[in-house]
User: Fold this.
Amino acid sequence: MKYFGTDGFRGKANEKLTAIHAFRVGRFLGQYHARGRGERVRIVVGKDTRRSSYALEYALAAGAAASGADVCLLHVTTTPSVAYLVRTEGFDCGVMISASHNPYADNGIKLFGCDGEKLPQDLLLRIEDYLDGGTLPLATEAEIGRTQDFVAGRNRYLAYLLSIPRTSLRGLRVGLDCANGSAFAIAKAVFDALGAEAVCMGVSPDGTNINDGCGSTHPEALRGMVLEHSLDVGFAFDGDADRCICVDERGSVVDGDGIVYLAAKHMKARGELEGNGVVTTILSNAGLERALQREGIAVVRTPVGDKFVSEELARSGFSLGGEPSGHIVFRKYATTGDGILTALRVAEIVLESKCPLSCLTRGYLPLPRREKNVRADDCRRAAASAEVLEAKRNAERSGMRAVVRASGTEPVVRILVEGEESRLDEAMSAIERAVRASGEVL
Assistant:
């Protein structure tokens, strides 16, 4: 696809992704959902704290209104709140303006259908066709749409989060790293209301500091805070709060694989793990699969992206899935990854288990791995080149597990090798040389 990757339309603001793109996406959504209907199309829109999010938000809203849709603006909110509200408040679709964990100069557009699921590929392709020069009629007279504030929607999502835990979190001391992003005005309010003592960082967004040395991609900052304040557990979110990475009371980082492990064991023990299995992606550590299989829990892998995890959960009937990056989907509660919801579930498990987080992950031993990103002009061609495929096969012949893929969110080829520690560097170097020899590297 030309514009949309694994998690929406993403790129550097005012270069790859402009207000004109946002306007045209809004035009398409307003017109598409109006077909054959006699009632007004309703679209809900949220954004993160990036400086460029404001221009993109209003451009998209203007485009949708020009096509006859009414647009409800949540303003700064989380991606999962948009997914929740679009399916519970009768909206035709939902839009989140965010580039998730990317630097502030990037931005993105994530789209949700009326069921709270991300839009299917065939519809995204139609949007791309329109972006490349399609035409649509403009609404006129009384058919022109309007925009309105919908801060009440964000409050309804907050109330929903408060309804999920089965017990108070009183007595639990937590650290929250809100990445100077969407969670900054929500996460602490939730934990405070549930009785936890919350110490926070990353809650002073200025439009340019989102994910900057903080959040789920930089858990070392949270680790320092947990140790300094002797906290029970720490939670780091990304820019739009659909990811969560944990830090235990000893300062050890617990990634998405660790969260899936402890949650799956807990849910199985309580008869809540539907289908007695979980969904992970090709990036999940093989050690996770082994650990879960020892517990009698099946594992199904998907391509990278919580969209694919959610689709497989719906297909298989399983109730839990996730990615190492911290996208965790508790299907009973949400259709997409939700960082704050994940933090609440982990906090609840810690209290219900009556043991620290470090104990809950003891049965999971990840295999050694190396990861590297190589910037490339054409990531897909580089990742699929004959040299790269041969280097990958050589690594696998030597007993390694190797994943080489074009990123769906950044202009990089992502390389992962996993296996025996003594062979990792050699395998990684061989694959990296092959990627650089492909002729597509920047």
